[in-house]
Every structure is written in structure tokens, then in C-alpha cells.
Amino acid sequence: MNHERKNFRLTDRAVKAATTRRPSAGRAMAGRLACLLTCLVLGLVQGACSSGPRRCVVSTLGDLKVMNDVGQPIVRATINGTPVAFLIDTGAAFSIVSPEAAEALRLPYTGQFVPIQGVGGQTVGNVVTVDRLGLGSGTARDTLFAVAGHFPGHIGGLPVVGLFGGNFLAATEPVFDLPAHQLDLYTVSGCDSPTPTWSGPTDMAPIEIEGDSAIMIDVLLNGHRVSAQLDSGAGHTVILPGDARHAGVDRARLSQDPHGHMHGVDDNRFEAHLHRFDSLQVGHAIYYKPWIAVAPMEIDHALLGADFLRHNRVWISYRTQRVYIQRLHAPDGDPTFQIRLRRLPPAHPVPATLSALPPVSTASR
Fold first, then answer.
1. CA distance 260 to 84
2. How many domains does the chain have?
3. Which of 76-85, 125-134, 331-340 is least confident?
4. CA distances to 126, 226, 230, 306 from 234, in Å
């Protein structure tokens, strides 16, 4: 398959953005950030909206290098000049920083708080402000984070301190190119193509934005419709037991599958089984014999996780409520949703797969 990035001219990448300080208005925050980005871009590109031929303008808030090869994407950033690492979590309604990081970096509290719905339950986070958030080539100002969760570990010598959620991402068009270790945060105007930096065949699937930023998409599991949230913060695609039953897999069959535990930002643990279904269809692309986790999450939908994003190029347009997908592998031999398992007895715990998975995202709607 011939899929390439176009050699595309972007506007000035040193775009600085500001966000509102009112966490209860997540959609308003995203809208104001998008509006500010547009104003800055139009100031940089003279005549972009003046009379005459329409010009295709692509700008970026940041071009972020993805630091890891598996699981949820992790990117490098800076908080008030201090290098740190963040998860990218399209399933989280609000961006989060850990209590330890908030204290160590002396982030000021606003006196406000936000509810955070996790896959295992609900928690509450106080809100802090980051004065300068470095995003590769761009900088965001006065960015709000909820204080919650724990993000142990380091990557590339940097501490993982939190996650970027929907209140931040929805102001842009996030473009995931995880096979190339790249995440771009674009704004697009005046372009005939919805994916102007791409070349090659592209599939489109409709999405629905629920709440402020939840990306809902219908997929077909063994031919049966499943409502899923596109969730880069979930290391693995997860469905509910009811979805498995509708797809012809009952509890007795699941009991013979490898199993382990998952947990979310709320730290509640729950058992999950790993089952190999017949097929999973996303858009027009059908993935055969996918390994999918089945778990009784405290949410009412499935999670289409980072195992999908890791092997496909995905462009998310919150504005038009569409997602564009470039499948990078032929159906035969496509690694999407594939896991190499050691040969183990039935129902044996599999610490190398489920138990070792990173925390499932907040998956808040």
C-alpha cells in the first residue's frame, strides 16, 4: 500500500495558545482555543480569507514525537520549562496531572474541581493551572489540569506526570501517525481535502462527539454493532461482556480464555479476559481474528484503544465529526489487534498481556 505524507507547507509553527480558566465549560474552552488559533493563523497568513482564490491553510499547535512503541502514546512536553512526559488520551474528558507532579512543580490551584469518570468508577480532581505548556514547536498558555491518578515510571529519562485529554485535544484536529512516532495537532481551513497532508487511499467513518469531547464510533464485532469510544488512553481495545454475548461469545467460552486485571485512573481493578473474535470492522476495514479484551467496566460502551491506532494512520476531526483512516497493511498479515501469546493452559493468568497492560484511560463522556 502506498501511503505517504505529503510534502506540505505549514504556517508558522510557533503558535501560542491560551485557554479559559473555567473547567465547567470544557466545550467553551476548546472553542476559544480553536478560535484563538484561527485568529493567530490568519494573522500569519495574509489574505487567507480575503477575496480571491481560496487558500488551503494548515497550522499546528504542536508537532509531538511519540516516545514509545506499544500501548498508549506518550509524548514529550514541558511544564513551565521543566521537561516531562504525558499520555495522549482521547478518552479523557479533561487533562490530568498527578498529585505528585502538581506538588513538585508547584502548580497553583484554582479553587475549582471537576468530576472524573473512570472505567472502574468516579473520582474528583482539583484544578491547577500550567502557565507555559511546551508542545514541541508550540506553546500553550494558562492550561487547566485536574489533579488525579498516579502515573508511575519514566520514559527517555522523563517522568510521566499525567495525560492530555479532550478539553485540550478537541480544539485541534489530532493526527495520529504512531507507526512514524508522530502526533500533530492541526487546524485546517480552506482545503479541498479533509486530510491535506496525506496522500493515498483514505477511509472515512462518521463519529459522534458526546459531552465535550468523547469520540463515539460504531464498529462491527463478528457482524454485530458495538458502540465504542475511540480512546488512545486505553492500551488495548476492550468490550463489555454484553457485547461479547451479542457477538456469540458467552461466559463459559470466556472462562477458557487467558485472563488478567485492568485498572483505570480511579485505581479500581477489574478482571478481563482476552478472546480472539472472528472479525472487527472499523469503517470499511475488516480486521480478522482480532484479540479483544472483555471486561465489566463501569461504563456503557466499548473502548477502541491504542492497539488500533498503533498500526493505522488516524485523523480526527472534532469539527466535522468524522475520522479518517489510512490502513497501512494489507489484510493478510495486518498486525492490528494481534498479540503473540505464550502457550499456556486454559484460564491461566497471562501477566505478559493483560496484567501488564498500562492503566485504561478515564474514558469519560
1. 30
2. 2
3. 331-340
4. 23, 17, 9, 6
Res 250: pLDDT: 95
Does residue 276 sit in the same domain as residue 210?
Answer: yes
Amino acid at 169: L
pLDDT, tens only, 66-99 = 999 999 999 999 999 999 999 999 999 999 999 9
Q: Are 195 and 61 in contact (CB under 8 A)?
A: no
d(CA 184, CA 199): 16
Question: If you ran DSSP here, which 8-state letter would residue 60 be given?
Answer: E
pLDDT single digits (tens) 242-254: 999 999 999 999 9
**59/189 Cα distance (integer angstroms):** 9
Locus of grid cell 479483544: 292
Separation between Cα atoms, residue 80 and residue 131, nearest integer Å:
6
71 and 182 together in one domain: yes
The residue to which cell 472487527 is assigned: 280
pLDDT at site 7: 42
